Amino acid sequence: MTAADPRRVVEAVWRTESARIIAALARMVGDVGLAEELAQDVLVIALEQWPEDGVPQHPASWLMATAKHRAVDTLRRQSRYRQKLEEVGRATPDSHEPDLAADIDDYVGDDLLRLIFATCHPVLSTEARAALTLRLLGGLSTEEIARAYLTSESTVGQRITRAKRTLAEKKVPIELPPPAEAAARLASVLEVIYLIFNEGYAATAGADWARPALCDEALRLGRMVASLASQEPEVHGLVALMEFQASRMRARTAPDGSPVLLQDQDRRLWDRLLIRRGFEALARAEGTWGPYVLQASIAACHARASRAEETDWERVAALYQVLAHVSPSPVVELNRAVAVSYAESPQRALEIVDGLADSLAAYPLLAAVRGDLLARLGRPAEARAEFERAAQMTKNEGERALFRGRAAALA
Question: Is the CB of residue 19 less than 8 Å from the CB of residue 135?
Answer without folding.
Answer: no
